[in-house]
Amino acid sequence: MSKRATPSAEERAVFRQAVADVERLEWDRVHHEPPLPPAIPRQHLHDEAAALDESLHGPVLIDLYLEGGDEAAWRRDSLPKAWLRDLRRGRWVTQEKLDLHGLNRDQARTAVLTFLAECRQHGYRCVRIVHGKGLSSPGREPVLKKLVLGWLSQRQEVLAFCQARAAEGGAGAVVVLLTAKK
User: Fold this and answer.
1) Using one digit for the tens of pLDDT, what is the confidence trace for 102-122?
2) 98: closest CA among 110, 80, 111?
3) What is the phi-psi region of residue 96: left when phi exceeds 0, alpha when psi lies from -120 to 50, beta otherwise?
């Protein structure tokens, strides 16, 4: 092993001359900016606020009730109960179908209203709306199902509706009976 030699007087003088213009720094730390706060999902908050507002201030759906267990069924008071029974048993021929899979609540509402208007225009009396079972939704809850049932119960052209039979979509679809074309 070799020992380091002590710098000579000449080497010290050359070093001092090389660093003569250097000024001592007054601080010895580097300032780092704090990390940015996490992103806030604002659209999610707006959607939840709109849903809450709709549930609190929207029209009361007193007419909407469940008959026969968990199956959604509704009819106007003026309609004979036998018509709803026949609708449940599939005695009405489904003439047209609307599938709402992949739509958000606003798109679904527009699609349902447009669909009902077109069906009335063509004179269709019995139609099916597929709202889905909510298997892809957060919490596996059928979000559109409740909304669609509420929208249908508010429409004058809707006489009755019930859950579709298993072969037609079961809990993921509703069969709707419409008024006759005037």
Assistant:
1) 888 899 999 999 999 999 999
2) 111
3) beta
State the CATH number of the domain containing residue 89: 3.30.1370.110
Under 8 Å between Cβ of 142 and 122:
no
Distance CA 74, CA 36 (A): 52
Q: Is residue 122 part of a domain?
A: yes
- Number of structural domains found in the chain: 1
Please name the residues in contact with 3: beta carbons below 8 A apart, sequence gap of 6 or more. Answer: none
Whole-angstrom distance, CA of residue 171 vs CA of residue 65: 15
Output the six-digit token pair for 94. Answer: 């489904």
- Side by side, the strands of the sheet bearing 96-99 are 65-66, 72-75, 158-163, 173-178, 126-130, 96-99
Q: For a pLDDT cut of 90, what percent of the chain falls above it?
A: 37
- The answer to whether residues 130 and 169 touch, using CB atoms and an 8 Å cutoff, is yes
pLDDT in tens, 53-80: 776 666 545 444 444 455 778 888 888 9
154: Cβ–Cβ under 8 A, 6 or more apart, which residues?
Answer: 59, 61
Q: Say if 132 falls within a structural domain.
A: yes
What is this structure's pTM? 0.62
Amino acid (one-letter) located at 168:
E
